[in-house]
Amino acid sequence: MDLPIFFADYFGTRTLVGIIAIIHVWINHAFAVGMIPLVVGVEWWAHRTGRQEWDALAHKILGVCFIVTTTVGALTGVGIWLSTALVNPYAIGSLLRVFYWAWFSEWVVFVAEVSLILVYYLTWKRMTGLRKSRHIRIGVILGLMSWLTMAIIVAILGFMMNPGSWLEQRDLLAGFTNPIYLPQLLFRTAAALTMAGSLALALSLAFTDRDSPLRTQAIKLFSGWSLFWLAPTLIGGLAYHHVIPQAMLNNMPVAFGTQAWQDLYGQLVHFTFLAVVAVALCSLWGLWQPLRTNPLVWIVPVLLLTGLIGYFERTREFIRKPYAIGYYMYANGIRVDEVPYLVKTGVLANCSWTTHRRVTEQNKEAAGRDLFMVLCSRCHTLNGINSVGENLAKMYPDQSTWSPAAIESFLKNIHGARPFMPPFIGTTDERGALAAYLATLGNRRDIPPPVAVAAFNE
Amino acid sequence: MANDLPTEPHDPRWLPSRATAILIGIGIQLLFVAIAVTLIVGSARDTGPLVHALLIPEDLVYPDTDLAPRAGKQQPPIDVRKMAVPTDGQLEKGNLLFAEHCASCHGPSGAGDGPAGIALQPPPRNLTSLSAWKQGARFSDLYRTLTLGLPGTQMPPFDYLGDADRFALAHHVAGLVPERPADTGASLDSLDAEFGLSAGAKEPNIVSLSTAMDRLVAEKTPAAGALSSEREAELSSLEPQGTAVFSQVVHPHQLERVSRLLLADASWRKDSDRLRAIAVDNLPDNGFATRAAMLSRADWSALNRYLTLRFEGE
Fold first, then answer.
1. Least CA distance to A245: which residue of chain B?
2. Is residue A456 over pLDDT 50?
3. A219: containing domain
4. Model confidence pTM above 0.80
5. Residues of B with CB below 8 A from A230's CB?
6. Within this chain, do residues A383 and A252 fall inside the same structural domain, yes or no?
7. Does residue A150 share a domain with residue A31?
8. B289: nearest CA in chain A?
9. Chains A and B: how many Cβ contacts under 8 Å?
10. Residues with Cβ < 8 Å from B190, sequence gap 6 or more?
11. Could you give the C-alpha distances from A371 to A162, A394, B100, in angstroms and in order?
12. ipTM given for this complex
């Protein structure tokens, strides 16, 4: 607790990370991991059969991927590390310690990927004839590197849900081969290939003439590709679901619907399956009747798959709560094994960047605000998305009755009442101070304007 | 350059037929299914609790019911010369204790053939033979071995049994081979001196569980360098700014390290630049929090004034 606290009111720090990360996943999966094998496959097939128009189409699709991945893709990739390091430096620090060499390898592979997509795209028109085979080989290596960047990161994502035997063995290999890793890799690989098919279909509409034979064949090919990979996606998803710890699956209703709509979990699951079925039907239709369809229909699978993978990311991030790293570190950056120490000595005494170092009768509410910053502000805002005031108002609708004692009794059992919340960590004085501060939020609607980085305010 | 090379409209090498392509497709699908099935069958879902009960702070609070603390009792002095003469009561007790504590390795008759001794290296001694006793075979030697154990072997110290029990056991073992070297008055006196027997043993005090837990926590979180709360309050009124800076850059669990560091080198006491150099060098391994790297000049002199007061006379 030796680092300043980054706090974004209204918007919330986790929304910031979520938006950057989900955009990155869309681009990584659809435009890189899934699309490169598809483009290389089309290039190879066009080369063997001498179909120049297919070669040109693959090149145009690659052009879009090239621009998107090297701009928004690369920026959001870097953005994930900058934003997460700011929001939860302790979690990133722990991941760095465990995955030290994986981090380094990831960078090497990423540089290789970006360099190769430059070479692959820019030499497309120059490496023709006898050099075409070599160009295709560059594409194969590029596809491998794209997949490897994902394969390394997926190990870290799996680790964050359930570190498995690493909790006892504490070595890189144990962390890498966590129970979630391979099922998730299988799922993501197949999902990326499916997404690439629907995206390639949508892009090919822009690059082919209406009613041209090329468009007809493209719709058939890319529909078939999506349909082909949809089955492994579902099988991989099943394997993935199978390895999620039971206690985390219990968080699913809230992960899917938030607390406001958690009762609709059943309907939301049905909706998810309907969306998958709709993607399958669109693809079947494309194989069956490529001509007799309004081109706008082909946008539907792209939107559905994009929505589904974004929703999947939110759910995955949520169900591992109360942890940032499963069974090892709580979402607020406190390690599970330092809890007894902090309960004994107090949280504030061990923080460098808070205004108050200990709770007294006079500073109770102000110290409580410091505690909010340290313990709650990774996920909660004061006014805005997932604000504490709003959540408390759901429990105690009459705000004039909010009392520190009532809120403190909730804090005592907070993990029992809401399993996705970590237990309150700190001394009993600190618990009282946090409750006193939270109670002040209810008595006035005019909560003071937010301070962007409140912890600097000394 | 590229344009100089001969170009071909297409590559006439192998291209899969429709049937081959379908077979490859089925193969890929089956491969995915096989991997997924292997993963599902080969892994069990983790069904443990999300947060282990003992890690919830409520469970860390000590229970209300606890052991009552009790002062240890002083045991009456032991006369070794008297104890060295076996009585019937001692022999009977020794027989029972031998069956309970020794027979599993040394065998019921003491021949070294107990079931638990089979795999031991070196094997348990045959107590019915007089050859090669490592620590001597006299009565006093038996008592010593029972109390201290036999280093380099699996023979443990039986010091938890109490003096009278160990004397009784020694008599039983001595009785297995009556024709053993006899003790002299001098050897019994030196046994007395070695274990302070005529002074009487002192039983340890029993402390409450919560006291023991507090001690354990204190051992794990060294409080060396900590001040009394009165002294702390006094310092913070004398030097409020320095106190604030100190609490930011020295966390409670690092007090000991920082105290050691600062007491080893007095050069900082009149020189806040020197203090800064000591504190910032080797951050954070020296015990200072990394925030020390961001203090202002005024902070450093306040910290220096505070530390000078805190370590006054040390």
1. B46
2. no
3. 13-330
4. no
5. none
6. no
7. yes
8. A2
9. 151
10. B140
11. 28, 22, 58
12. 0.83
